[in-house]
From TrEMBL:
<dbReference type="InterPro" id="IPR048816">
    <property type="entry name" value="Peptidase_M17_N_1"/>
</dbReference>
<dbReference type="InterPro" id="IPR000819">
    <property type="entry name" value="Peptidase_M17_C"/>
</dbReference>
<keyword id="KW-0464">Manganese</keyword>
<dbReference type="GO" id="GO:0006508">
    <property type="term" value="P:proteolysis"/>
</dbReference>
<dbReference type="Pfam" id="PF00883">
    <property type="entry name" value="Peptidase_M17"/>
</dbReference>
<feature type="domain" description="Cytosol aminopeptidase">
    <location>
        <begin position="308"/>
        <end position="315"/>
    </location>
</feature>
<dbReference type="GO" id="GO:0005737">
    <property type="term" value="C:cytoplasm"/>
</dbReference>
<protein>
    <submittedName>
        <fullName>Peptidase B</fullName>
        <ecNumber>3.4.11.23</ecNumber>
    </submittedName>
</protein>
<dbReference type="InterPro" id="IPR011356">
    <property type="entry name" value="Leucine_aapep/pepB"/>
</dbReference>
<dbReference type="GO" id="GO:0070006">
    <property type="term" value="F:metalloaminopeptidase activity"/>
</dbReference>
<dbReference type="InterPro" id="IPR043472">
    <property type="entry name" value="Macro_dom-like"/>
</dbReference>
<comment type="similarity">
    <text>Belongs to the peptidase M17 family.</text>
</comment>
<keyword id="KW-0378">Hydrolase</keyword>
<keyword id="KW-0031">Aminopeptidase</keyword>
<dbReference type="Pfam" id="PF21337">
    <property type="entry name" value="Peptidase_M17_N_1"/>
</dbReference>
<keyword id="KW-0645">Protease</keyword>
<dbReference type="GO" id="GO:0030145">
    <property type="term" value="F:manganese ion binding"/>
</dbReference>
């Protein structure tokens, strides 16, 4: 269930959000017993610290949460979220002088800190609740939290329950909720409809590959989201070692992210003509698996030499991107857990991205800073184009040498988007390796909140 704010409650307790400077000012307005309690407790408004204030009867009368220093806030996001688990399971109303952007970020963090993945194990954890301030758009924040919850749930679900048919069912459920239209091309029909690389990657699995195509909205600019839906990646015949296979349920993180973003867009009723394309496959091993050395045809007409079957994500995305490009929408955005090279370069927190348009990049980075959803621009570096040209075919899916792996993957994808100048590609991680404020260990959305905030500028003609 998606986290929500509490309903208005006359018995709610005050929760004051303070930094070191505002703490001193707040203390001066308090009675001597409160000042003594705060000082004796050693509360200094450090980042994410909390203190419950007692009433005369010994019950909770309110609480304080620390914002910490400016330097601390540069290193860690979501102070209010980090304190939520330590607060008593009561309903609070917020007292703060934060500006609207900072307040929205803290309130969203509070909601996201309420996320619990309880499909397989019921959680008995009861958390503090918060009434959203009247000055804030609670509906928007809850819609964003719902989209992020969807993304996290899809990634966290193991492949036994999140194969291509299950990913299709999740998309269908979302379509029903928001009145979207959906069509699915499955199995050998992929060959008949000219999606040969999606078919080649997924044909070895017991659950048939498919292309999910969802549309919503009749007016506004055209936006197409393409998400990598590799529901499990063994590496194919270039089989991954066991240690590298452990997190491969998250290899559909790009699909989860675009569905989460689509959920936000539709719930908020944005004026866009939205299309979501998800090639959903498993990269498995069987007698029918595609092989190193094979040359595949693509929807675009380009041939691809397979030098590593573990570089399969770019293959399924390529056919979907070619389809997206045929409509020449105002923007195409692809999201994928595509390369380990991206993680080596920027770590798990940042979402590296590639943008054809400098204007779109500026809009995205401004929005990302505002909503505390960090991204980092990477280059479409043209001199590396030769690295993805093997000679025997038009393209190489896994250039030798190991250099610039994320860039060469992005350049590969760009070859399939030739009619749409406004193309952005995200090489995301989709996983929180250790718990952080508002982000428990496990699946996580990246760049979706930044994209949502940036869309009005991204889609300007």
């Amino acid at each position: 269930m998606s986290p929500t704010f509490a309903a208005h409650d006359e018995t709610s307790l005050p929760l004051s959000l303070l930094d070191a400077d505002s703490l001193s000012e707040w203390l001066e307005s308090q009675p001597a017993r409160v000042q003594a309690w705060v000082k004796t407790s050693g509360f200094l408004a450090g980042f994410g610290t909390s203190l419950v204030l007692p009433s005369d009867s010994g019950d909770a009368a309110g609480a304080l949460v620390g914002l910490g220093t400016k330097a601390a806030r540069l290193r860690t996001r979501f102070a209010l979220a980090s304190a939520r688990a330590a607060l008593p399971a009561r309903t609070f109303h917020l007292i703060t002088d934060l500006d609207s952007d900072a307040l929205n970020a803290e309130l969203l963090g509070w909601l996201l800190a309420g996320y619990q993945f309880d499909r397989y194990k019921a959680s008995a954890r009861e958390l503090a609740q918060l009434i959203c301030p009247d000055s804030t758009d609670a509906f928007r924040l809850e819609a964003i939290a719902a989209g992020e919850t969807l993304t996290r749930d899809l990634i966290n679900t193991p492949a036994s329950d999140m194969g291509p048919p299950d990913l299709e069912n999740a998309a269908r459920a979302l379509a029903i909720t928001h009145g979207a239209r959906i069509a699915v091309t499955e199995g050998d029909d992929l060959l008949k409809q000219n999606f040969p690389m999606i078919h080649a990657v997924g044909r070895a699995a017991s659950r048939a590959p498919r292309l999910i195509d969802m549309r919503w909205g009749e007016t506004g600019p055209k936006l197409t989201l393409v998400g990598k839906g590799v529901c499990f990646d063994t590496g194919g015949l270039n089989l991954k070692p066991g240690a590298s296979m452990g997190l491969m349920k998250k290899d559909m993180g790009g699909a989860a992210a675009v569905l989460g973003l689509a959920s936000m867009i539709m719930a908020l009723g944005m004026s866009v003509q939205l299309r979501v394309l998800i090639p959903a496959v498993e990269n498995s091993v069987s007698a029918d698996a595609f092989r190193p050395g094979d040359i595949l045809n693509s929807r675009k007409g380009l041939t691809v030499e397979i030098n590593n079957t573990d570089a399969e994500g770019r293959l399924v995305l390529a056919d979907a991107l070619a389809l997206a490009d045929e409509e020449n929408p105002d923007a195409i955005i692809s999201m994928a857990t595509l390369t380990g090279a991206a993680r080596v370069a920027v770590g798990p927190d940042l979402a590296p991205y590639y943008a054809q348009s400098d204007r779109s990049a500026r809009a995205l980075e401004s929005a990302a800073a505002t909503v505390q959803d960090p991204v980092w621009r990477m280059p479409f570096w043209d001199p590396y184009e030769a690295m993805i040209e093997p000679g025997i075919a038009d393209l190489d899916n896994a250039p030798k040498g190991g250099f610039a792996g994320s860039i060469t993957a992005a350049l590969f994808l760009r070859r399939f988007v030739t009619e749409t100048p406004n193309y952005l590609h995200f090489d995301m991680y989709g996983w929180q390796p250790s718990a952080a404020p508002a982000r428990p260990q496990g699946g996580v959305g990246q760049a979706t909140r930044a994209l949502l905030a940036a869309l009005p500028d991204l889609l300007k003609s």
